[in-house]
Amino acid sequence: MTVWLDVSVKVKSIYCEGAPMLIGELAEQAGVTTRMVRHYANAGLLANDRNSNGYRDFGDDQVVRVRQIQALLGLGLTVAQISDLLPCLSDARETPSCPAARRAFEQRLHSIDAQIDALSSVRSRIAETLTPSV
């Protein structure tokens, strides 16, 4: 009598601190999709090495980097602007404070102010349209 065991069990990888991570592990640790990690890596925002099989390996410091990128994107900076800020980003979680970051934040503030002015103008015109003429 022969007994066959089904050994096709899917095992979730366990991340070991200090060991290189694959793209899915980095995405999970950072709370983003693998597509976002790939996009950031292709844009040169993340450091990675290629294995002989073509897979990307990421260091555990890249988890912090992905979170920094997400925070800067949340402030409205573009990937190109963030790329310029890479030398300013440290392993710390604080917002970069180098001159390039200051310029990027000032540009963003000017852009927001212009958008507020434009929206206020549109709002005023709509409000005038709704006001009954006498």
Q: Strand order, main sheet: write it out.
A: 1-2
Q: Over the alpha carbons, how many angstroms does the gyration radius reach?
A: 23 Å
User: Which architecture would the CATH scheme give at its second level?
Assistant: Orthogonal Bundle
Beta-strand percentage range: under 5%
Structural category is: mainly alpha
- Overall pLDDT metric: 83
The CATH class is: Mainly Alpha
Q: Number of helix segments?
A: 5
The count of β-strands is 2
CATH topology: Multidrug-efflux Transporter Regulator, Chain: A, Domain 2
Distance between the termini: 99 Å
Q: What does this protein look like?
A:
It is a single chain. Helices cover 52% and strands 3% of the residues. With 134 residues, the chain is mostly helical. It has one domain (23-130): Multidrug-efflux Transporter Regulator, Chain: A, Domain 2. It has a two-stranded antiparallel ribbon. Helix 1 packs across helix 2 (34-42) and helix 1 crosses helix 3. The longest helix has 32 residues, at 99-130. The chain starts with 22 loop residues before the first helix and ends with a helix.
